[in-house]
Design goal:
Order of helices and strands: HHEEEEHEHHHHEEEHHHHHHEEHHEEE
Structural class: alpha+beta
Largest sheet: 9 strands, mixed
Oligomer: single chain
Helix content: 40-55%
Distance between the termini: 14 Å
Radius of gyration: 21 Å
Number of strands: 13
Length: 446
């Protein structure tokens, strides 16, 4: 077994997957060799996708979530260059993108390279003098735009590579603003949404108004467990072990959860509604709470005061009823469902877990409004077929659904679930993908 496979297994990855990823990295090495990249200074990383167990659209509100890494993701190998150019080679598609480590690099909307360009531009802006480029080869088995954080995984992977070749962690401005990996997750969320972070100025980002849940799960997950984090700022609350004999079956619905154009506008609408609620609360209360969660926690009756505030004229074009729905979804998901599900999991009370996850899915459909018929069908059919719990996850408006099933039944469950989906949604099922995964390790340099 290779050293890389052993390191991945030591981090908690299953043996089959560790060996597969090590084989990928050997292919990436070969691609860099063919491109003439320096062999001696190469570094390799495993960067996983993530599964949001619970916490639908809570992170940018300062709420909490339960999430884990999965055993699908990105393998990346990088070698430093002698100039400021960054050459990215996706060996699965064969595409090559070239950019510069400069603060004025123009965006490339709608293409995977835009996420890498955004990282390069932000590093150049926030860390003047960090101008060493890299030859990067990567491969991913994350379905694109399917709710498993394929884009955030690429952001994290490219940042880790460029941070390494530029020795960012040794720089004073890095140590001052990003003291640990929780803060790094926060910073990389800001890289995506374009906001400033501490003393590090903002940028245009990638165009989505999200938070840092994805980056946190990718960087801070623990094998075999869910991690519960709260946000604004990102802070660890607890790790909850998953029952060892259970696995996740994931169904990528075949409905692309694209974050461009009209789809991005729908995604950002949920964020805009939360921002409008917080702004109305600030006007009425005279407070300056940094997040919706902080506003709710400001007093015993703050939640009722917020409800009253958003039912009154607010100066926003958003419908008051829609704001009430958004608040109730956030308060139910973050304030009740997440902590109750964590407690039920710790007791291995899967009946209670299933009921709480069902409530989360119902709130997403009825109040948050980010579900499509296909994801709703997958969640319902998984429960009908015997899953202990099942829910859509990710940004919504397409994407994926997870189901929690006994390990020995997982493969057969995936086949039955796929057959049910083909019957109910034949068009989408042609593009769907079903696979089994454990809760795997966080991003790791190997």
């Amino acid at each position: 077994m290779s050293d890389r496979a052993e390191r991945l297994m030591s981090a908690g990855m299953s043996g089959v997957e560790a060996r597969r990823r090590a084989e990928w990295m050997a292919e990436l090495d070969a691609a860099l060799t063919a491109a003439g990249a320096d062999a001696a200074a190469r570094r390799a990383w495993w960067v996983p996708g993530r599964l949001e167990f619970l916490g639908k659209h809570t992170d940018y509100c300062g709420g909490r979530s339960l999430a884990c890494a999965i055993e699908r993701g990105i393998c990346l190998v990088a070698a430093p260059r002698g100039d400021d150019r960054i050459r990215l080679h996706d060996i699965r598609s064969g595409e090559v993108a070239v950019t510069g480590l400069t603060p004025s690099e123009p965006p490339s909307p709608g293409h995977w390279s835009n996420y890498a360009l955004t990282v390069a531009r932000r590093i150049a802006r926030n860390f003047p003098g960090a101008r060493r480029g890299a030859d990067i080869a990567f491969a991913s088995d994350l379905p694109a735009a399917a709710g498993m954080s394929s884009s955030s995984a690429l952001v994290v992977a490219v940042f880790l590579a460029l941070a390494d070749v530029n020795q960012l962690r040794d720089r004073q401005e890095y140590r001052r603003n990003i003291p640990d990996d929780d803060a790094l997750a926060d910073y990389l969320g800001a890289v995506e949404n374009g906001k400033a972070f501490a003393d590090l100025s903002g940028d245009m980002g990638v165009g989505t108004a999200g938070g840092s849940q994805d980056q946190t799960a990718i960087l801070r997950s623990r094998s075999g467990a869910l991690v519960q984090y709260a946000f604004i700022p990102t802070r660890f609350e607890q790790a909850v072990a998953l029952p060892d004999r259970y696995r996740f079956v994931i169904a990528a619905s075949g409905i692309v959860a694209e974050k461009t154009g009209a789809a991005r506008a729908r995604y950002n609408a949920a964020s805009a509604a939360a921002a409008a609620i917080l702004e109305q609360w600030r006007r009425v209360s005279g407070r300056d709470d940094p997040s919706l969660a902080a506003a709710v926690a400001s007093s015993a009756d703050a939640a009722d005061q917020i409800r009253s505030a958003i039912r009154s004229p607010s100066g926003t074009r958003l419908d008051a009823g829609a704001l009430v729905d958004r608040f109730e979804q956030f308060q139910t998901e973050s304030g009740m469902i997440v902590p109750a599900a964590a407690e039920a999991l710790s007791q291995e009370d899967l009946t209670a877990v299933g009921a709480l996850v069902d409530l989360s899915q119902e709130c997403a459909e009825r109040l948050l409004g980010n579900q499509v018929p296909e994801t709703a069908e997958l969640a319902r059919s998984a429960r009908t077929l015997g899953a202990a719990a099942a829910s859509a996850f990710g940004a919504g408006f397409g994407g994926s659904v997870w189901a929690m099933v006994p390990d020995e039944e997982a493969d057969e469950f995936a086949r039955r679930w796929a057959r049910s989906y083909t019957h109910a949604c034949p068009d989408a099922a042609q593009r769907a993908e079903f696979f089994v995964t454990r809760a795997g390790p966080a991003a790791i340099q190997v």
